[in-house]
């Protein structure tokens, strides 16, 4: 199996935008080539959901086109990317992270849509049933978002920055689907995407 996944590249449509690298772990970590993505993609989200042995790539874009598609890579021999359920919202430069102690859900938050419109909505992917569901919780609108899991994936932290480098940070308890993002103090230094 693998623990970490790197995909794509913002390389102007060259073949490296289809690249995939997997990090084997935990005893002897090393990078190795994974199967190429079926098409070029950049500004997407990716997460490894260890509870179901699936890596997920979702959203992003192919230059001028924004995507809502989901690609799945299951652990095991003869790995290949397969199509998963479509996201509810077309988005790029969103934040995405595994967010579940059981290891089968991923949260995607914020980002940018067509015509560079900031997106406040959030959604959660359940790999066990291949389904995206909107979360009631919404973020303040800001273009660039990064999401990281904390507390073993039972909560996620989102940091958003707009084009003026104004940063806001929020915390969401993913165990409660009706939960709201709770603002927290921003970092002292400006964040860079």
Brief rundown of the structure:
The chain is mainly β and 193 residues long.
Task: Describe it.
By secondary structure, the protein is mainly β. The protein has no helices and 17 strands. The strands form 5 sheets. A 4-stranded antiparallel β-sheet has the order 4-5-6-7, with no helix packed on it. The protein has a 4-stranded antiparallel β-sheet with strand order 8-9-12-13, with no helix packed on it. A 4-stranded antiparallel β-sheet has the order 14-15-16-17, with no helix packed on it. A hairpin with a 3-residue loop joins strand 10 and strand 11. It is globular. It starts with a strand and ends in a 9-residue tail after the last strand.
Spell out the key features of this protein:
193 residues; mainly beta; four-stranded antiparallel beta sheet; 40% strand
Q: Nearest-angstrom radius of gyration?
A: 16 Å
Profile the largest sheet: 4 strands, antiparallel
Give the distance, in angstroms, between the N- and C-terminal Cα atoms.
29 Å
Q: What is the 3D shape?
A: globular
How would you summarize the topology of this molecule?
Layout: E1 4-7, E2 20-24, E3 30-33, E4 45-49, E5 54-58, E6 70-74, E7 81-83, E8 95-98, E9 105-109, E10 112-113, E11 117-118, E12 122-126, E13 131-135, E14 144-150, E15 155-161, E16 167-173, E17 182-184
Antiparallel strand pairs: 1-2, 2-3, 4-5, 5-6, 6-7, 8-9, 9-12, 10-11, 12-13, 14-15, 15-16, 16-17
